[in-house]
Each structure stands twice: as C-alpha cells, then as structure tokens.
Amino acid sequence: MSQPLKILVCGDVNGKINQLYNRVKTVLKKNPGFEMLLCVGSFFSGSEETHREWDSYMKGELRAPIITYILGPNDPEEMKYFEADFLEDGTELCENITYLGRKGVLKTPSGLQIAYLSGTDKAEGLKGGCVFSEQDVASLESKSNEENFKGVDLLLTSCWPQDVAKFTKKPSDVETIPPGSTTVSQLASKLKPRYHFVGKEGIHFERVPYRNHQVLREPARHVTRFIALSYIGNPQKKKYMYAFNIVPMSAMDASKLTEQPDDVTENPYGKQVSNAQSQPVQKPASGGFFFDMSKAAGQGQKRRGPGADGNPPKQPRKGPPPTKGPCWFCLGSPNVEKHLVVSVGNMTYVALAKGGLVPEHVLVCPIAHFESTVKLDEETLMELEKYKQALKKMFKKKGRSCVMFERNFYTQHLQLQVIPIPKIPEDEVKEAFRGHAEMKGMEMTDLASGTDLKQAVRIGAPYFVVEFESGDRMLHRVRGKMDLQFGREVVACDSLLNMPERIDWRECKVSEMQEKDMVATFRKDFAPFDFN
Question: Is the pTM of this model over 0.85?
C-alpha cells in the first residue's frame, strides 16, 4: 500500500479569502506536505470586501499557498465570479485556485478520485446558474454504471443529503439536522464515496461511518464517512476546516479497504443503496485488483479440511503482488514524480520518460502495482491497449511511427516504453532488433499475430518484448543475463534515431522546469487522441 496523502477540506469561505489562507499558512507551517485544499459550500460572497480581496489574487498581488479546488455558486450573488463559458466545465480562476465545474470526477496524478456537484438543488426554488438539475445528477451517477466500478474516494457537494443522520444520535451542539436533498442522497448511494464533505448550512457534524453493502447478501465494501463543515469566522467557533490522510482506493488492498469499524451503521439512504435482492452477487474477475470478498458471507461455501501440515490450505492470492520496497511507478506512491504524468485513466496512466531518448518518449504504466504485462488483469490490459492505439494515432498524424517495448527483467513495476521514430520500413526496424540481439547472444522470436503474451511466457519468467507499428511483436526469453539498456540501444542506433550518445538515460536528464514544459507540450498534442 502506498503512503497516505494529506488533504485539507474547508467549509463555506463566504468571501473571507485572506482569512482562509492565513489559517492555511499556519497549518502548513506546523504540518507541511498537504496535497491540496478542497472547499465545499460558497467560496465567494456579494460584498465589496470580497471583491477587493479577490482582485488581489486575480492581479497576482496575492497567491494561494496551496493548490485549491472550489465548487460553484450557491446563490445569485456569487454568479458574477463565474462566467458562462466555464460555468459547466470549470477552469483555473487564478494561480493555484481552480473551479471544478458543475459536476464531474477529478482524477489526480496521485490516483485519488474526487467526485463533485456544485450549486443548490433547484427544488429549493432558486433558478439560473447557481442550481444543479436532475440531469446533472444523473450524468454523475452514470459513472457508477462503468464496468468494475467500486466507488470514489471523495464526494464534494454544497447540499446535504436527505436522511443522512438516520441510525445516529443528533449531536448535542447541533440544533437541527437540515432536511437535505433527495437527489444528493441518491448520488451518494450510487457513487459510494469513502468520504462525503458538505457545507452551506453552517453546521459541523461528523457522522459515524455507514455501510455500502448489505451484510450476507453482497461482498463487503468500504464504508462512507460523512462530514459537514461550518463556515469561516462563525461566532460559535464551530469546526470549519478538516485535515486527514487517505490512501487512494486504487492503491489499497481490498481487505484493508473493506475493513468495517466497530461503530459502523446501516446505510441511511435505505433502498437506494442496493438492488441486491433482485440481482445475483457478481464475483470480481479473477486476477483483478479487488479480492473476491463474496466468500466472506459464508453462504454456499463448503468447509475445507486441513492440508498435509494440519493447517488450512493456502488460498491463491488475487490482485497485484505486494511491493518489494518503495516503487517509483505506483501512481499513489510518494516516490512518483507527478509532474511527469500526462494522462490518467481508470487503471493505467501515461507519463513522460525521465531522461527520454526524444522529448516525446513516454511510458504507459498500470496505476496499481503490477510487475509485467502477463500479470495484468483483463480490465487493466484493455486500457493499456487503448493507450497504445491512441499514441500510435497521434504519432501517425505527425508523420512518424513508434516502437513499444517492455523489459520484465530487474524491474519492479511494468513500464511500457513508447518511442516515436521516423517513418522507416518496418522490416528495417525489425532487422535492427534482430541484428543487435545476435551481437549480444540474444534470441528474438516472432510472436504469431493475436498471440496472448500469457500463452508465450509463464508468469514470473523474465522476458523482453517489442511491438512495431503494425502490431507485430518479437520476444526474447531471458535465460541468463541481459543488457538492461538493450531496447534504448537499438532505438538509438544509426539506422533508427542515430543518437548513440543518448543510450544511457542518466546522460539525458534535464531540469524539472524543462520536464514540465515537455509534459505540457505533449499533453496538448495528445489531447485530441486521449480517450480520458
């Protein structure tokens, strides 16, 4: 499991922007290392003081000390800060402050998934750009229909959900629990957030966790923690800022993710949470990231006898293997250089190669910890293929082809190297790999079209595989030693890129600022082909 991320969440700012960031600076001085600040509720107000403070940030006279994501307007007075052309999809308002948009899911380079819904329920009677509609909620709920959907890490809404306090005792310092929105309740039950943060009502309320599954009828799922925050400067000094640590769901073991705390309650949203009575339990695909938890229910399972040593037989482990020390490529790992990330999917991501042969040399890697292609589950493998095809299309439009190779030898995490090369007859590219392999005593064999790599290489065996523009592949089964720079050496040879001086990646490193510029350029070029 990767290292936890440190997140700050704030309730309604109500235009007290300087007061917010003065408080944040104090927090950061005592406890540095926070990834971001998330603001739920109203960020702006209609006052002249708010306008003057905000103008200082827009002009660059003041700067937010942390990356900040805010929700949209909750009343007409805030509308002047949100232009019509970005009200739906969001935008960066000024340095370090970004408006998320009406609704959506933000996937961070760390692997965190943050679902958000801006505005007030139109059922409250307001109109215009400060309300969300049932169509907005339905669009966001559709994420739950995606294959193998498990939930999101965070859900941010201004509105409270209806019935959230059911099965709990009202705290003594809370006079009244707001009636809440039925559509937000429905959204929370569909998206199954691990944390649901709200603002708007000026109340601090931290609900005990609730379940997202029906006991004995469904596989165990993670719990949800609901937290409502008050507003900055409230006279009762109610809690308006919340700091916590979280490991992204995509980087957690299912057994750890689905742990049920002692004070967990049933889901407050009743029948909205599940239709398990009408649908059979679906077992996760073998080899997927999540374990098969359906056996925990104890229904229909035969008791197994002890093994030869008198102990119960060991069950085969499902999901990616545990890491062997720090990993530089697990997206949730603190070791990842996040500024190199170009695109993040559900199961895989694309990043600029450090010390690449050329500026557009990239890696495609799984988000979770998988050592090689032959260990990938079906869903991750399918998304990896989608990225490969998208990259091929981009390079083809630029008048180039590309070479893709993987070395499963002295590697901890799968890295598919993708390198653009000039339009050269494919036979010549293949011959370059064969020729260099022969000089090094390696045997490169052609893989028949359509052959699954898992059929050609047993799990755990070391190998080197290269794929060409047509999809043809060549495989070397490593039986002894292998030059770790073999792939780069071939692509850098005089018949392909003709840059032998760049074989060693350590000789090709550039400054972080140059890397950021290269990432920005590549991301812009890749955008028309990026399925995310």
Answer: no
